[in-house]
Write a structure and sequence with these properties.
Largest sheet: 4 strands, antiparallel
Shape: elongated
Distance between the termini: 79 Å
Strand order of the largest sheet: 1-2-3-4
Strand content: 25-35%
Number of helices: 2
Low-confidence stretches: none
Structural class: alpha+beta
Mean pLDDT: 78
Order of helices and strands: HHEEEE
Number of strands: 4
Length: about 110
């Protein structure tokens, strides 16, 4: 009986300790990663500008978005369209975040 009580107290102490650690953290499913959301919005703005300037049936083959600075947000978006390596269109777009939070195209280069 003493052994069961000792095990029960140890298990209770262990679960209380783990509960305290878990209480300090937010569940991963409920946290929103703002930088990733802003990068996705910058990529979307760049793609909208590409299709507006160069209407095409080509699809996006590869893209990369990197944050240059956090406040205000400056994002470099590199987009490669589908097609043969010699004929595919490649774009480099710089998207900036204005003080009111909207995104605007700062520079637009068609590198190929």
């Amino acid at each position: 009986m003493k052994l069961l009580v000792t095990i029960g107290v140890a298990a209770l102490a262990l679960s209380a300790c783990q509960g305290a650690n878990c209480a300090d953290k937010q569940p991963a499913g409920l946290t929103v990663a703002m930088p990733e959301a802003k990068q996705d919005a910058a990529k979307s703005a760049a793609l909208d500008e590409i299709y507006e300037r160069y209407p095409t049936r080509a699809m996006v083959d590869a893209s990369a978005t990197t944050a240059r600075a956090r406040a205000p947000g400056v994002y470099d978006v590199h987009v490669e369209m589908t097609g043969s390596p010699e004929a595919r269109a490649i774009y480099d777009v710089v998207v900036t975040e204005t003080p009111d939070g909207t995104l605007e195209i700062r520079t637009f280069y068609k590198t190929q």
